[in-house]
Design a protein that fits this description.
disordered N terminus, 7 strands, four-stranded antiparallel beta sheet, 12 helices, alpha+beta, 58% helix
Length: 332
């Protein structure tokens, strides 16, 4: 009896020691149908998304509130967790439908990724700092591929009728109407780099320069050449090219003139809050695309909508448990 008690005590102590040695990163931030999403993988994906956002918006945004409620940090934490839950739901369904990627397919993706990062030493060091290792890449790429495979299977198995597409087209006809202008311009500024208005004398000089530029163009000089010589806009080095724009993208005075012109025409001097412009329209599109022209596009849109609803149902039918205390403990 004493021996049995001693053995039980040893087993209990061993179990206790094993429990104490559990790595923090092995804790679950959530479970999906009993399968765990680990804190380690959550932190790594969080770090990747954080790095990506900071490259666009800087590193000072995280305490800023979104819509006066949650901070950017809280929003990112929630978004990453929700995406991981969705990915796990999709991966499990891909396994059921036998479209989960093979180890070979996953390894091919990892090899391609590694080759790309080899070229960027700075990014490679960032990944190492975040702990992005082979195990994480296997986890992430297996789920990325499973998502692509499941969507492809769903779209192959799902029919979209002609009547559905026509109904969608009639309801969203305005989305397939194109009203755009391609233009170039020359700008002589009446404001300084801080947006402050120039003196009356400086404005007078700007207008005189604009008149000189317009006279040269009317005399037959190349618009792009004159733009490079006279324009004070950042587009000057590119001959004043603005590219394609639609209504509502330019200031009203500029837009009104640009949309009233024909391709090849050059405007007179146009005054806006920025200064004096000379506009040249190079191309105009004013067209309602027919159902036939956008049919395949509409089919893709409807399939995508159906797939989103399908995934929402899969999530609804899954047993999902979030471990809020573990989520909060994730380093950021």
């Amino acid at each position: 009896m004493k021996k049995i008690f001693t053995l039980m005590l040893c087993l209990m102590m061993t179990a206790s020691l094993i429990g104490c040695n559990n790595k923090k990163e092995d804790k679950a931030v959530a479970t999906v149908n009993g399968k765990e999403i680990t804190l380690g993988n959550y932190e790594k994906l969080l770090a990747l998304n954080k790095l990506s956002m900071e490259s666009y918006y800087g590193s000072d945004i995280w305490s800023t509130k979104v819509d006066g409620k949650k901070t950017y940090e809280d929003t990112l934490r929630d978004m990453v967790l929700e995406n991981m839950i969705s990915s796990e739901v999709i991966y499990q369904q891909a396994e059921k439908d036998k479209v989960a990627p093979t180890d070979k397919q996953v390894q091919e993706q990892i090899n391609t990724f590694n080759k790309q990062t080899e070229k960027d030493e700075k990014y490679k060091k960032e990944l190492e700092k975040m702990g992005i290792d082979e195990d994480f890449l296997k986890y992430q790429f297996s789920r990325d591929l499973a998502s692509s495979n499941l969507q492809a299977k769903f779209e192959d198995d799902t029919k979209v009728s002609e009547s559905e597409m026509k109904k969608y087209y009639e309801k969203n006809k305005a989305d397939y109407y194109t009203d755009t202008v391609d233009a170039s311009h020359i700008l002589l500024k009446t404001i300084d780099d801080k947006g402050k208005e120039l003196s009356a004398e400086k404005k007078k000089e700007a207008k005189k320069k604009a008149e000189e530029a317009l006279a040269k163009i009317k005399a037959g000089e190349d618009f792009a050449k004159v733009a490079k010589e006279y324009s004070q806009d950042s587009t000057a080095s590119n001959g004043g090219e603005l590219g394609t724009f639609g209504k509502g993208q330019m200031v009203p005075e500029f837009e009104k003139v640009a949309f009233s012109m024909k391709p090849g025409q050059v405007s007179d001097i146009v005054k806006t809050q920025y200064g004096y412009h000379i506009i040249k329209v190079t191309k105009k599109v004013d067209k309602q695309q027919s159902f036939k022209e956008v049919k395949s596009q509409i089919k893709s849109t409807l399939l995508s909508e159906k797939y989103t609803k399908y995934i929402e149902k899969l999530k609804k039918d899954s047993t999902i448990e979030k471990k809020e205390d573990v989520v909060k403990s994730a380093k950021f």
